Amino acid sequence: MIRCENTVKRYGERTVLDIKELTVNKGSSVALTGANGSGKSTLLKIIAGTTAFEGTVRASGRILYMPQKIIAFDMSVLSNVTFSLKGRKSEKEERAMAALSRVGLKELYKKNALTLSGGECARLSLARILVNDCDILLLDEPTGAVDIEGTEIIENTVREYISEKERTLIIATHSPLQAKRMADRVIMLQKGSIVEDCSPDELLKAPSTEFGKKFVDMWRY
Ligand SMILES: Nc1ncnc2c1ncn2[C@@H]1O[C@H](COP(=O)(O)OP(=O)(O)O)[C@@H](O)[C@H]1O
Ligand SMILES: [Mg+2]
Predict the structure, then answer these.
(1) Which CATH number characterizes residue 83's domain?
(2) What pTM value is reported for the model?
(3) Nearest Cα to 160, choosing from 212, 215, 206, 98?
(4) Atom of ligand 1 at shortest distance to CA of 140?
(5) Distances in whole angstroms, Cα of residue 161 to Cα of each of 113, 127, 128, 133
(6) What is the tally of structural domains in the chain?
(7) How far away, in angstroms, is 147 Cα from ligand 1 center?
(8) Ligand with the closest atom to the CA of 144
(9) Could you tell me if 65 and 50 are in contact, meaning their C-beta atoms sit under 8 angstroms apart?
(10) Distance from Cα 9 to the centre of ligand 1, integer Å
(11) Which one of 6, 41, 105, 171 is most buried, by most CB atoms within 10 A?
(12) 32-72: pLDDT as tens digits
């Protein structure tokens, strides 16, 4: 479970996130949506524990976090996954290959990661975290720079992973349709506050705010 209470993030004078109350139940899938700059990444960073904030956030269980800025290191695709693992080399490589295979990158394991396309890089980034176990998975626009085929691979891989056991997912996305494919609940942020909190179908059919309407019309794909 994740629980935020009076969670606030300020940069100087400016408040970029102000969440009065938010509970995400164990095993649920939440799509976090809203315009650029609405605070999606900030909220994920706060839950992941990578940025300071005011207020309370409680998250129970192990968290895996895929940041919006994807990083590939100047080494092989395989080493990009194994480098953070502990254990015998053969075991690490076996786990990494299984993760690469999940995201359809098995054949490219020897390739230098810097030569990958944007979409392949996003899949590598996903393999790097999904090689581990977790209770809470936080994904920040994992398909932001990915084509349709890559998006399908990422979505399927994530769905499979979260259904393996009772894992909680929060995925930041611009697409209400991706929200429908991936989540049972959509939370929409506007200027750092929650303005919609409903099912993806409810959001697509009848957003309760003007902003929600505009947003859904703009991103109806
Ligand atoms: N390091 C920072 N310094 C100052 N402002 C920041 C910093 N990081 C993010 N912001 C601001 O916080 C707001 C929310 O950003 P972000 O959470 O990245 O939005 P989103 O992910 O929804 O696009 C934006 O207006 C952004 O400019
Ligand atoms: Mg962001």
Answers:
(1) 3.40.50.300
(2) 0.95
(3) 98
(4) 21
(5) 23, 11, 13, 9
(6) 1
(7) 25
(8) 2
(9) yes
(10) 10
(11) 171
(12) 999 999 999 999 999 999 999 999 999 999 999 999 998 89
